[in-house]
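Researcher: Here's a chain I'd like modeled. Treat it as a single chain, no partners, no ligands.
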Amino acid sequence: MRYRPISPERLVDELADRLAAGPGNGWTRVAVDGADDASDPAALADALVDPLRVRGREVLRVSARDFLRPASLRLERGRTDPDVRYEDWLDVGALHRELLAPLQDGGSGSVLPGLWDAERDRALRRPRAALAPGSVLLLDGELLLGRGLEFDLSVHLWLSPAALRRRIPREAQWALRTYERYEHEVRPGELADVVVRMDHPTNPALLERGH
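Model: Modeled as a single isolated chain. Structure tokens:
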């Protein structure tokens, strides 16, 4: 295995080409997985939207942050518990039920693009969206792999331990143990279809397996 240096623009183009070349008679569920505090998976997911539309794909852009549990459950043991963040922040059942399952083979294509406003701690009350076959769901978030969630393509933004410590803001340093546990227990770099090293966000590197 080796990492191939790649520009951010070329990375987006290669991913968009890969997704646009997929089957047009079903839905494509894409996870962009990475530490919210450090690797910014939302930025890569956002950057894919227009290139996919130019390539003729309808896109629904969704964030896992809109599927967090209510504060009464999520913060029951305080706001800085790394194990609770790892185990209980994300409403995995709702994410599967409302967003991913309707886009599996034989699904309805009707999804709920957001469930809970974590900042205001209240339901989002968004209407359901009907996605035509051939559409791409772009979901960004952290700790998405190894939970039984089904994706057609998973992209993991990986940081070396030193880069992770360097890039997490001071106020979020408590989450280091969350990400270290994810790396140790899940090994997302082995599960993901695409792994991008993001130690330096302006100079990413794409993992090429089999070398």
